[in-house]
Specification:
- The protein is of the alpha/beta class.
- The chain has a single domain (3-237), classed as Metallo-dependent phosphatases (Purple Acid Phosphatase, chain A, domain 2), CATH 3.60.21.10.
- It has seven helices and ten strands.
- The chain has helices at 13-22, 44-54, 66-75, 84-99, 104-115, 154-161, 233-236, and strands at 3-6, 30-33, 59-62, 120-122, 127-130, 182-185, 199-201, 204-206, 218-221, 227-229.
- The protein has a five-stranded mixed beta sheet, with helices on one face. A five-stranded mixed beta sheet has the order 4-5-6-8-7, with helices on one face.
- Helix 2 (44-54) crosses helix 5 (104-115) and helix 3 (66-75) packs across helix 4.
- The N and C termini lie far apart (37 Å).
- The mean pLDDT is 97.
- This is Serine/threonine protein phosphatase 1.
Length: 244
């Protein structure tokens, strides 16, 4: 039995199907999804359909991404603190267009799926899985602002900026990086630093390899760190823009 983690999908069902096949995932494996299933490519609704069916035969853990929360707010007509124009610019338009083609019954199933998502997952080996990050120095249980689980970027920015010569027992070593054995995140694509593979900084593994844009989708074995990738999403959806 293996445990895999999958980065941000952003409506790219073709890529999701590719990585599951390339990693030769079986029903004995556990899959941890880091969120952002929607917004970007044209198959956001189809991704949710796939995941709803997938979890019936597969041990899955689904984390909430910021785009998933935005989609849920839209589906439930919650418009307070919701900038619809900004959401459209960042992938929401494709989601709205996709949902215009599905039945009210399917929408109800999708709302139930979005509402069931976890803010984070902590395994038996003290490995944390969260979409974006957290800010409380003592860890996720103490976080004052739960929205930061799917909006924060400071955890990854701090990991990138950390002097690699600092040791965990150093006075200046960030306490956030001493709480967990490993932290797995998505949210901020590594393409921003010119990469398209999972990147490890301090104890943080960033598995968002830019599938919303021109990067591939990635699935990684958390024990061996072996990973498999889809074709770049802009090639799989060559007639679309995604979030580019």
């Amino acid at each position: 039995m293996r445990t895999f983690v999958i980065g941000d999908i952003h409506g790219g069902l073709l890529a999701l199907e590719q990585v599951l096949k390339r990693a030769e995932v079986t029903t004995q494996d556990t899959i941890i999804f880091l969120g952002d299933y929607v917004d970007g490519w044209s198959q956001s609704a189809e991704v949710i359909d796939f995941l709803i069916e997938f979890k019936k035969t597969q041990n899955c853990i689904f984390i909430r991404g910021n785009h998933d929360q935005l989609a849920l707010d839209w589906l439930e007509n919650r418009h307070e603190d919701f900038d619809e124009e900004m959401w459209y610019k960042h992938g929401g338009r494709a989601t709205v267009e996709g949902y215009s083609k599905i039945s009210p019954e399917r929408k109800k199933d999708h709302i139930a799926f979005f509402e069931s998502l976890k803010d984070y997952y902590l395994d038996d080996e003290n490995r944390l899985f969260v979409h974006a990050g957290f800010t409380n120095l003592n860890g996720v249980v103490w976080e004052y602002f739960p929205k930061l689980f799917y909006w924060d970027r400071t955890l990854w920015e701090s990991a990138l900026a950390l002097d690699p010569n600092l040791k965990p027992d150093d006075l200046y070593y960030p306490k956030r990086f001493t709480v967990y054995k490993e932290i797995y995140i998505g949210h901020t694509p590594v393409t921003r630093i010119g990469e398209t593979v999972p990147i490890n900084k301090a104890c943080v593994w960033n598995v968002d390899t830019g599938a919303a844009f021109k990067g591939p989708l990635t699935i990684m074995n958390i024990d061996t760190k072996e990973f498999w990738q889809s074709e770049p999403l802009n090639e799989l959806y060559s007639n679309e823009k995604g979030r580019n």
